[in-house]
Description:
Layout: H1 3-26, E1 31-33, E2 37-38, E3 43-55, E4 59-64, H2 67-78, H3 84-107, E5 113-115, E6 119-127, E7 132-140, E8 144-152
Antiparallel strand pairs: 1-7, 2-7, 3-4, 3-5, 3-6, 4-8, 7-8
Helix pairs in contact: 1-3, 2-3
InterPro entries: CheC-like_sf, CheX-like, CheX-like_dom
Protein name: Chemotaxis protein CheX
Domain Chemotaxis phosphatase CheX-like: 48-126
Amino acid sequence: MTTVASEKSKSITSLLNGTITSIKGVVPIQHEINKPQLLQQSLKISFGVLIGITGDIKGKIVLSGDTSVFGSIGQAMFGMPLEGEMLSSFSGELGNMIAGQLSTNIVENGIKTDITAPTIIEGNTTLSGYEKAIHIKALFESVGELGIYLLVD
């Protein structure tokens, strides 16, 4: 393996580990995280949030799930049900918190990144045009599943 490929692999591993650590630190619900899987097709989403990643690694982090999952996470964090515009706003902020914590986590490995403002995804959407996509499932107790996608450019 060339040095460039080795560095990229190391950076992606840091990104994955940083994401898992971020979720553990941000979401106050018992959960289980499945092993990362390489996504072999275009990403299809009906509700979620996309945060761009710039700097040493370029790509996107996408959180995807039913609105009820985002609502339950919001209720666990803020003690009140979230619906409509508040749910969309919270979903973007959840993405910000996880991606921001991710940037903080991986700087310890010498990887400098920044994040973009969140983009809320509603309706049937297909994302493509990335070099590699890694999917992680977070299963939250009594809440449901949140899909985490790392799209590397």
